[in-house]
């Protein structure tokens, strides 16, 4: 090689002053080849970039399914515009989510069921108008609301706590619509009886707290467990993926196909709270609390909507007729092919029933004002 000559892929670069015969390059790709190489590189880089989050997702799904469940709820709250806030009554903290602001339409307060949390309402919130003021609170001892060994977990005790929450938010500055399902329906019904001026209307979704003439299979099993003191085997407090699957089948008419990892995640989320859930469960089925709604239903004077799944295996659908006979201004909606988890199984239908009921009550109130 001539002194001063440098080689690259485009051929030699002669930096000497002397002349020499032309040199032949080792390789000189054409423009198309270079473009093909750039495209390949682009896909390799893109594939590597995409692979990282995909691998992270798969690892999270396999190793930390409970974390994915929390992310899922966070994502849906954010998507639906639900904001999480905390409010205190003395040394007691309530956690709640909300959307919208109080307006001419009644605010809606939603009370979830046993061992659930405020996010259980998200599937229904998705179908509710955005101009409604919605408030979903974590019930006493659940999720972000204070859990105290000194707390009164009876139905009356929970009613008092929810009233404290209402006072903190000044939600009763104007009568609001109260919604409750299962244990939350039990509390909601008793609340409407104890604080009639706070509530303008009521929706009870398969509420607990009624006294039936005959026990269904689920209640019979619970009584057997109580008699044998086998509190570790309560069907609503699963400790394994198999028990979680059985609980979902008990509570739902629709058979959800839930992956094993998600079942494990659901169990992992609940296990740290199971001691509390057992204590709460024994309290709400005690003589003091078991039939609180039954004992107070004739005191409910506000327009009341009763929604029940016809195939409810936890609380018998005949409870709807029982309530309707005791609450003068009430209407019953029975849902076909639906079990105890009404809000999860039929969110769109439940939302529509709620909106239609509010519209009918609201228009009736306006007519009375005009008269």
UniProtKB/TrEMBL annotation:
Segments forming domain AB hydrolase-1: 106-347
Record's keyword annotation contains Transport: no
EC number(s) from the headed UniProt entry: 3.1.1.23
Record keywords: Endosome, Hydrolase, Lipid metabolism, Lysosome, Membrane, Mitochondrion, Signal-anchor, Transmembrane, Transmembrane helix
Leading EC class: hydrolase
Record's subcellular location: Late endosome membrane; Lysosome membrane; Mitochondrion membrane
Gene Ontology biological process terms from the UniProt entry: acylglycerol catabolic process
Primary localization class, coarse: membrane
Annotated InterPro entries: AB_hydrolase_1, AB_hydrolase_fold, AB_hydrolase_sf
Gene Ontology cellular component terms for the protein in this record: AMPA glutamate receptor complex; late endosome membrane; lysosomal membrane; mitochondrial membrane
Catalytic activity: Hydrolyzes glycerol monoesters of long-chain fatty acids; 1-dodecanoylglycerol + H2O = dodecanoate + glycerol + H(+)
Single GO term (MF): monoacylglycerol lipase activity
Membrane topology (UniProt): Single-pass type II membrane protein
Ranges that cross the membrane: 42-75
Family membership: Belongs to the AB hydrolase superfamily.
Function: Lipase that preferentially hydrolysis medium-chain saturated monoacylglycerols including 2-arachidonoylglycerol. Through 2-arachidonoylglycerol degradation may regulate endocannabinoid signaling pathways. Also has a lysophosphatidyl lipase activity with a preference for lysophosphatidylglycerol among other lysophospholipids. Also able to degrade bis(monoacylglycero)phosphate (BMP) and constitutes the major enzyme for BMP catabolism.
Record-linked PANTHER family: MONOACYLGLYCEROL LIPASE, MONOACYLGLYCEROL LIPASE ABHD6
Name of the molecule in the record: Monoacylglycerol lipase ABHD6
Biological source species: Bos mutus (wild yak)
């Amino acid at each position: 090689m001539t002194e001063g000559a440098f080689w690259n892929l485009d051929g030699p670069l002669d930096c000497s002053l002397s002349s020499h015969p032309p040199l032949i390059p080792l390789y000189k790709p054409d423009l198309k080849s270079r473009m093909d190489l750039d495209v390949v590189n682009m896909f390799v880089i893109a594939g590597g970039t995409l692979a990282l989050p995909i691998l992270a997702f798969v690892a999270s799904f396999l190793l930390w399914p409970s974390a994915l469940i929390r992310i899922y709820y966070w994502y849906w709250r954010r998507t639906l515009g639900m904001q999480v806030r905390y409010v205190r009554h003395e040394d007691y903290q309530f956690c709640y989510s909300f959307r919208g602001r109080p307006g001419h339409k009644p605010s809606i307060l939603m009370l979830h069921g046993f061992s659930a949390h405020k996010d259980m309402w998200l599937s229904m919130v998705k179908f509710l108008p955005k101009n409604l003021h919605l408030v979903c609170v974590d019930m006493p001892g659940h999720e972000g609301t204070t859990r105290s060994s000194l707390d009164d977990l009876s139905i009356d005790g929970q009613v008092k706590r929810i009233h404290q929450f209402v006072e903190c938010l000044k939600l009763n500055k104007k009568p609001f619509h109260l919604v409750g399902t299962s244990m939350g329906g039990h509390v909601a019904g008793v609340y409407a009886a104890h604080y009639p001026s706070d509530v303008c209307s009521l929706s009870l979704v398969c509420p607990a707290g009624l006294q039936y003439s005959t026990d269904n299979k689920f209640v019979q099993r619970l009584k057997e467990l109580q008699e044998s003191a086998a509190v570790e085997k309560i069907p609503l407090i699963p400790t394994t993926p198999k028990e979680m699957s059985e609980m979902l089948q008990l509570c739902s008419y629709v058979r959800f196909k839930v992956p094993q990892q998600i079942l494990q995640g659901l169990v992992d989320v609940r296990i740290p709270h199971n001691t509390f859930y057992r204590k709460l469960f024994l309290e709400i089925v005690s003589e003091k609390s078991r039939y609180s709604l039954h004992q107070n239903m004739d005191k409910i004077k506000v327009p009341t909507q009763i929604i029940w799944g016809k195939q409810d295996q936890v609380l018998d659908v005949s409870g709807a007729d029982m309530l309707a006979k005791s609450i003068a201004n009430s209407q019953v909606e029975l849902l076909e092919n639906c079990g105890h988890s009404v809000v999860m199984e039929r969110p769109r239908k439940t939302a529509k029933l709620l909106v239609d009921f509010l519209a009918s009550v609201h228009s009736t109130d306006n007519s009375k004002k005009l008269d």
